[in-house]
Amino acid sequence: MKLKYGCNPHQEFAAAEPIDPESLPIERLNGNPSMINYLDASNAWQLVRELRQALDLPSAASFKHCSPAGAAVAVEFDEDLARAYEVVGHALTPQACAYVRARGADPKSSFGDFVALSDPVDLETANFLKGVVSDGIVAPAYEPEALEVLCSKKKGGFIVLRGDPNFVPPQRESREVFGMRLSQDRNNRLVAASDVATPVCGTFTDAARRDMMLGLIALKYTQSNSVGYVLDGQMIGIGAGQQSRVDCTKLAGQKADTWHLGRHPRVLDLEFKDYVKRQERINWRIRFLEGDLTQFEEIALREALAGELRMLSDEEKTDWIQKLTGVSLVSDGFIPFRDNIDHASKHGVKFIAQPGGSTRDAEIESACKDYGIAMVHTGLRLFHH
To answer: Each residue's pLDDT tens digit in the chain (385 positions)?
Structure first.
């Protein structure tokens, strides 16, 4: 497959060729992916395929620059979340539900994403995708009408790929970097229920075990270091690619707070003028929550609103964030210092899954007990680069 270009347009030659010509993991049906598009599709397809196998639920991922902005399984919405995601009155199939959750975790990062779905794409899901800004999609199959809708997106340039659900990858992988070929065994260790079965402190709910498995699988395909926050079958914050683990914890926590604040009544009640498009409304809600509007943004937001602009105070935000609870935190490497636990406790974390193995494991466990957090040592490191 000749690609549009490499990681950058000036890298004019780029191609994706199967190792075994008789076995094609991903087939192009429409559009012309770039190198990054293909890397996103490949990682995202593996993620949703593994989620589907592990949790037996339709799964979705929203990928940007080789890491998920969000990932989720098909769990029904409550009314406030449906309002926050602007899907009130929509008849969402389980597959569409999973993607709406995945994209809704961090909609600012998901702008222009690559979509991955674990199940065949139906017309309802295709029609939803038609209305969002995305680069492409990978899925195992497409209903004929759904394929027609997707192939017409972006004036016919929308990338549509088919992932083979039965493809078995080679046991060993390699890449060429600066004149050297690096090889390693593929990370084919599947996340299993047994990995989160026995906490070292506290107790787990069934929902927490599901969420921790979801989070571990998502981080398996996230640029390391990474930490994720999970709630109700979806990632609500991912801190990816940071050199310091506590920075991952803080970044993911900030995103989880923003996601939770999106359900604040004042945010849900923001009334926009009819001409303001869906993506613009989403962007304005995020800027409203971030609060640091420039002079020109404040003028533009006041113009976009049908009603009065009244910003949330720091106290109102803090009061609302304190209502967030039942969150699971997952980490792709061991937690080295208790500051990670101290920061996690500020974002509603009640369950943690991490490899364990630090010289400070006892200190980490003690911190969890201080905050009433249940924790499991998975013994499973999930670095991904």
So the answer is: 899 999 999 999 999 999 988 889 999 999 999 999 999 999 999 999 999 999 999 999 999 999 999 999 999 988 999 999 999 888 899 999 999 999 999 999 999 999 999 999 999 999 999 999 999 999 999 999 999 999 999 999 999 999 999 999 999 999 999 999 999 999 999 999 999 999 999 999 999 999 999 999 999 999 999 999 999 999 999 999 999 999 999 999 999 999 999 999 999 999 999 999 988 999 999 999 998 999 999 999 999 999 899 999 999 999 999 999 999 999 999 999 999 999 999 999 999 999 999 999 999 999 999 999 999 999 999 999 9
Check if 384 is active-site: no
- Residue 159 is encoded by which pair of tokens? 């990338």
Q: Give CA angle at 217 (378, 87), nearest 5°.
A: 135
pTM over 0.70: yes
**CA 251 to each of CA 220, 255, 325: distance values in angstroms, whole numbers, following the listed order:** 18, 6, 18
Q: Which residue has the tokens 């999930």?
A: 382
Which is the catalytic residue, given 30, 37, 43, 225?
Answer: 225
**Active-site residue identified among 4, 65, 90, 108:** 65
Residue 152 buriedness (CB in 10 A; 0-12 / 13-18 / 19+): middle
Active-site residue flag, 260: no
Give the chain's radius of gyration (CA, Å).
Answer: 21
How are the residues of the chain apportioned to helix, strand and coil, as percentages rounded to the nearest 5? 40, 20, 40
Separation between Cα atoms, residue 89 and residue 86, nearest integer Å: 9
Pick the catalytic residue from 10, 155, 166, 385.
Answer: 385
- The verdict on whether 166 is a catalytic residue reads no
**SS in 3 state form for 117-165?**
ECCCECHHHHHHHHCCCEEEEEECCECHHHHHHHHCHHHHCCEEEEECC
